[in-house]
Amino acid sequence: MKLIYSILGLLLTCYCNAQVFYADDFIKMVRSNHPMARQAQIGIQKADADLLSAKGGFDPVVAMDASRKTFDGKNYYFYTNPEIKIPTWIGADIKAGIENNGGQFLSSEITAGQTSYLGLTLPVAKGLLLDKRRATLQQARVLREQSEQEQLNALNNLLFDAYQAYWQWTGRYQLFRIYSRFVTIAQDRLRLVKIGFYNGERASVDTIEALTQVQQFQLLQNEALLQYTNSTLDLSNYIWDERDSTYLLSPTYIPDTTGFSKYVILPDESAIIQQALTANPLLRIYDFKLNALEIDRKLKQQNILPSIDLKANLLNRGYNVFKGWNSALFQNNYVWGIDFKLPLFIREGRGEYRKSVLKIKETSYELSLKRRETENKLRSYLNETSQLQQQLVISEQAYKNFQTILTAEYLKFRNGESSLFLINTRENKVIETAEKLISLRIKYLKARYAVDWSAGLLR
User: Does residue 451 share a domain with residue 334?
Assistant: First the structure.
């Protein structure tokens, strides 16, 4: 209890130096410094790293194959073959190299002396239109774009939670202010009633009734202070600085009560639904998933085809493969071959292809369901916001009317035409109406931001 009163005293002394903590400034801090926002950015960086890794499949490769054998004073063989291999975007591999071979027991398939070659390996069936390295690169590009949508979706969810915490904090502050105002009014009235009792104008029971009202309002004030303090702690969970350190919100900061009382313009239903279906990051994630699965389907389709690779090398003496470039060179100095492989039943290829098609259907059904859920969520939140706005108008009118009645009752009481019982009844009704009004305000603002959240627009 001492802690509550000390916090209460601190808040009351801070009001004179209060600084408004606007929702836009709060959201800017969350967007820039909150760990979840930064963590989502790391997902994009990881996707960039995966894309860089996938591009490595097209890096030229320099290789060196060298060996030598000497035994009992005999030079059995020596073999030196530096080579460069260049993958291409059409699936073919170009390679070029030089050789320096010799020795007493050199294999008959190997040409002695210095030679050079320029070759090409080209798939003409499986792998011609798409192979694993090209598919990996295409999928990495798709996943890079998907990671951006995942980052936007994570930010959308984070900001929605942050907005809810802010308006909850604002509503608790408003309640605390109302209870504090009535505590002050009740205390002033108790002081006047005591003066009247001492002057013989009031009965002793009036002082007890006035004191009871003060105590009732103080209990409400203490409960509101507790809720306001806890909501401040909840809000502080979203406040981080540039050094990744969190800190408690200073008591000198108060919420934007003006923004809390404003009405917001609702977007057109058909327009925001169309915008959500095309730009909502949650739905866009499924679009990119389908793109990646389509690349996988095309790759699996290639596995049904036979593997036929054509290989051809142009050969020449010395280290200049283009020396003597003429028709005789093409007729005499070459090596070529064909690699052919085909499983007789192709069951593995057909099974993998069928699975890829089913995955696309499965994800398409999920996307259709998410689209429908998004549309219905938007309509639901739009209807809820519209209904709450109408309730707010009625509740505000009722609150003003009860305040008018209370003011009139105060005037009657000063003129001796009313009683403390009626005053207390009117005050309790005003407070009850204020509580409902603030509760509706919180629900209204949460529902309004839920519209943007379900459309994926909070960024």
Answer: no
